[in-house]
Design goal:
single chain; Nucleotidyltransferase, domain 5; 5-stranded mixed beta sheet; 33% helix
Length: 403
């Protein structure tokens, strides 16, 4: 165990040691106690196991309780929990407003006035082309450069700009593609589908003898055989996939998903069309409980194999309890089977390395069985009310001039 002696300057300038601990009880503090005190000050009352461990093993020289040092914090608007910027930099910026520069330890104001922060955020929310800058979107460095070029500030650090934007979750370097509804009857067609997902049809709850299926085709899935064998991952090594490949043919993967029972039905066909799709329908409708169901709703897009009044007549002639429900044009996101197709793309087809069509078919159907064994219905939360609000929002956005 380590003991800490008290040292005092003698009259000749040398240091003398006091052997009596009581003589220096008010001047000696353990380094561990200082660490514990600092940790308590930083944690602001939160539980911290480290100081408790440290203080439990130190030598208690006295019962003196150290006094707390006064600390000051920066204003809320100038502090962010983000510790690094997009470019990886960290640190503070150089202030271009000398009149606003104050000592933060003395509780001063932020280095920049609020008007500068507002102007930077406004510029970040504006398209660069509208601002006269030949960029598709702002990056952190380009935004920092533009702020200085416009004379908003003389100089500013990227970390400061990042901190201001992060406070309002503004990320102008990111974007998301979207598609405005093109179908004039979008609401009329999408509404019944959302009702089915909510367990309703024409305002009435679905019964236990009603079933909802979502179906579509994933077309032209190529069996790509890599020109060189893939290398499996290992210690300090990621998997390696040869870039070049040979095309060994392609399948159309026709699939139906039972929305409420989380059941899958799929088949691989050389192509799409009326005959392949009817084979999928026959595969499903021949099984219990669909063959004896009161109603079987099929949510379909506008593909060539199941489109228009003729498709409805053909299907209901063979299966009278089948009720086709068509999505609006360019609205595949309303069809739940697309969610499953996205899973297949990520987990089975990327990266793809299949010796032939038979290997590709085995992979698709094998994953279908594996997925179904643990599948649960998708938690669909988008309702008819959400659709109404979205269409109203898009109607306002459509009236705005293009950037």
């Amino acid at each position: 165990m380590t003991y800490f002696a008290c040292t005092r300057p003698a009259s000749d300038g040398t240091l003398s040691s006091a052997g009596d601990h009581r003589a220096c009880r008010d001047t000696v503090r353990s380094p561990l106690r200082s660490v514990a005190k600092n940790a308590r000050s930083l944690s602001r009352g939160r539980q911290n196991i480290r100081p408790r461990i440290e203080t439990s093993f130190e030598r208690r020289l006295s019962s003196w309780r150290p006094t707390a040092f006064a600390t000051t914090s920066s204003p809320r608007g100038s502090v962010s929990s983000v510790k690094s910027s997009v470019s990886g930099g960290s640190g503070s910026s150089t202030n271009a407003w000398p009149a606003w520069t104050k000592n933060h330890e003395a509780g001063g104001q932020p280095a920049f006035p609020p008007s500068v922060v507002v102007e930077v955020k406004r510029l970040a929310c504006e398209s660069p082309r509208v601002a006269g800058v030949p960029l598709a979107r702002w990056s952190l460095r380009e935004l920092q450069r533009e702020v200085v070029t416009r004379g908003v500030v003389a100089t500013i650090g990227g970390t400061t700009v990042w901190r201001w934007l992060a406070a309002d979750a503004i990320r102008p370097w990111r974007h998301r593609s979207w598609l405005f509804p093109r179908d004039p009857d979008f609401a009329a067609k999408a509404g019944p589908i959302l009702d089915l997902y909510a367990g309703l049809w024409q305002g009435e709850p679905l019964s236990t003898e009603d079933y909802v299926l979502s179906a579509d085709e994933k077309t032209s899935i190529q069996a790509r055989r890599r020109r060189h064998a893939s290398v499996s991952p290992g210690p300090d090594r990621v998997a390696k996939i040869e870039h070049e490949y040979e095309r060994m043919g392609a399948w159309a993967y026709l699939t139906a998903w039972d929305v409420r029972r989380a059941k899958l039905f799929g088949r691989c066909e050389p192509t799409t069309g009326i005959v392949p799709f009817d084979r999928l329908v026959a595969q499903v409708m021949a099984e219990a409980p669909y063959r004896s169901a009161r109603r079987v709703f099929w949510i379909l897009d506008n593909g060539s194999g199941h489109r228009g009044p003729k498709a409805v007549e053909r299907l209901q002639r063979q299966w009278p309890t089948l009720i086709p429900v068509f999505t609006p044009v360019h609205a595949s996101w309303l069809n739940q089977i697309e969610i499953y197709f996205s899973v297949v793309q990520r987990k089975v087809l990327t990266p793809g390395d299949f010796a032939d069509l038979a290997a590709l078919k085995a992979a698709l159907l094998g994953f279908q069985d594996r997925y179904e064994s643990a599948a649960r219905p998708f938690e669909w939360t988008f309702t008819r009310q959400d659709l109404t609000a979205l269409l109203a929002k898009l109607a306002v956005a459509e009236q705005r001039p293009a950037a």
